[in-house]
C-alpha cells in the first residue's frame, strides 16, 4: 500500500549511513568466472554511504531460490550489530523493488510472475523485520 511504502521509506531514511555500499548490487553486476574461481563486481556508478547490509539485502529481494535468500539472511544475522535497523532496511528494499516493478511499465506490460514473487518477498521481509524487532 502507499502508506506502507511511505512508512518504510521514512524509517529507512532515518537509518545511519555508516557503510560504503555498491548501491546497485544485483546479479547482472556480479560476474562469476568458474575457470578462475573468481568473482568480479562491476558498475560502481552508484557507490555511496548506506546503512549496513544494504547491498546484501538489495540482492536478497531479487533472488529466486529460497536457499539463496536464506544464506543472505543468515549472513546478516551473523554480522549485524543492529537487527532492528537491518529489518527496517530489509523491508524497505523489498517494497522498493515491488514499487519499481509496478511503476516503470504500464499494467499491460507487467511481468505478473515477477510481481507476484516480489509480493511474496515483501511478506518475507515484513516477517523478518518483525522477528528482528522482537529480538
List descriptors.
single chain; 4 strands; two-stranded antiparallel ribbon; mainly alpha; 135 residues
Sum this structure up briefly.
This protein is mainly alpha-helical. It is built from five helices and four strands, in the order αββββαααα. The longest helix has 23 residues, at 112-134.
Helices and strands, with pairings:
Layout: H1 2-13, E1 19-21, E2 30-33, E3 38-41, E4 48-50, H2 54-60, H3 66-79, H4 83-103, H5 112-134
Antiparallel strand pairs: 1-4, 2-3
The coarse silhouette is: globular
Number of beta-strand segments? 4
Measured as a percent range, the helix fraction is: 55-70%
The radius of gyration computed from the alpha-carbon positions, rounded to a whole number of angstroms, is 15 Å
* N-to-C span: 26 Å
- Strand proportion: 5-15%
Query: What profile does the largest beta sheet have?
Result: 2 strands, antiparallel
Strands side by side in the biggest sheet: 1-4
Mean pLDDT score: 95
Number of helices: 5
Low-confidence stretches: none
Q: Secondary-structure element sequence?
A: HEEEEHHHH
Classification by helices and strands: mainly alpha
